[in-house]
Amino acid sequence: MSMPSVPSPMGPTGPASSPWWRQRRTLWWLLLAVALAGGAWLRWRPAEVSAVVLRSQPLTRTLQFTARVKTPARVELGSTVTGRVWKVAVNEGDRVQAGAILVMLEADEARANLQQARAALVQAEAKLASQQALSLPSAQSALAQADANLLAAQRDLVRTQELVAQRFYSTQKLDDSQRAVDVARAQRDAARAQVQANQRGGERGAAEAQVASARAAVEVAQARLDQTTLRAPAAGRVLLRTVEPGQIVQAGKALLTLAVQGRTELLADVDERFLAQLQVGQTARVLADAYPTQPFSAHVDRLGAAVDAQAGSVEVTFVLDAAPPAFLREDMTLSIEVVTGQRAQARVLPLRALRGAADATQPARGSVLVAEGGRAVLRELTLGLRTLDQAEVLAGLKDGEAVLLDATVQPGQRVRAVLASPATPNATAP
Fold this sequence. Notes:
32% of the residues lie in helices and 35% in strands. The chain has 4 helices and 20 strands. The chain has helices at residues 19-44, 108-165, 171-200, 203-226; strands at residues 47-53, 55-70, 73-78, 83-88, 95-96, 101-105, 229-231, 236-241, 248-249, 254-260, 265-271, 283-288, 291-308, 313-320, 333-350, 365-372, 375-386, 390-395, 402-404, 415-419. The protein has a 6-stranded antiparallel barrel. It has a 4-stranded antiparallel sheet with strand order 3-10-8-5, with no helix packed on it. A 4-stranded antiparallel sheet has the order 7-6-4-9, with no helix packed on it. Helix 2 packs antiparallel against helix 3 (171-200) and helix 2 packs antiparallel against helix 4 (203-226). Residues 1-17 and 422-430 have low confidence and may be disordered.
């Protein structure tokens, strides 16, 4: 018995003739087209890149480094004689004026020597006064007497000669009269020499020399007494004291260290790379690490004439614009910020927008990428003042152009700049 035949569900033309299969094939084609279109869109879609717009603003460039307070002159003071310390009049940190007493040694022996020298001077001056008051008049009186005696002897000789001629006296009498004249003349010459000696020198000169010697002895004794007192050679501050009362000190040993008062200077060792930025007269803001809330001002006074070959640094000296603050100490550590460049208005870009490393010591050239026509375009710039994070643009950019900040973007790449500005943080460049 034969089975009846059943028609095939596929139909005589196969599955392609089925309506539902045709719909499925169409769906696959649609999905493939969408995928291809999405890939193409992703491939050609411009990348969103952060950007900034060239803007004008005040610009200040500074250098910061560490400095120290320089002592104008540091003097070690000591005694010039050996002795026992009687009194120390100062302590470390005290300010002293010129001539102020610092240390006193025992001085009893020196005072006694001074008194003895003064007494000898008084004696010498009294002897000179006596010589001037008595010796010269006495010599002059003796000379007058000698002149009178000589005159009388000469007259007597004349009379004797007459009488001898008349034979009233013998020749022996004439010889006696002549001898008397000779003796009177000799006495007169001696008296005259005595007067001249008192007038021109001799005893008076010796007396004057004795007075001068006594005065010199007084000066020596006074100097030795002064050496027992150590005084400040100039106004300043006591930095170090190494002596106490009762201590026996030797001549030449340092007892005190004094910082002589003078112009306060600050010294800083600055890297030689920044030497071109520093100039005499530039202003600086100074802070002591121990007093960070009390800044004061200074300015560059001079630059070192040589570079330290080992450290590669230059010594820069600053002076204060006003009286130093009371807390300032010798060798104190300070932080200094020097204004090395300033613009009232400058067209400024951040340094991170520049392509490549920025070096403040190199010529002012640089390049950036700008968004132009939907693509990143390389632009060469002429730069001016640079700070740690900004650079002044002198030429190569127009105001309002979007400068790309992403360092991975390459020239020619399609980009869509997203601006960052205070007013519209996510504004999009056209």
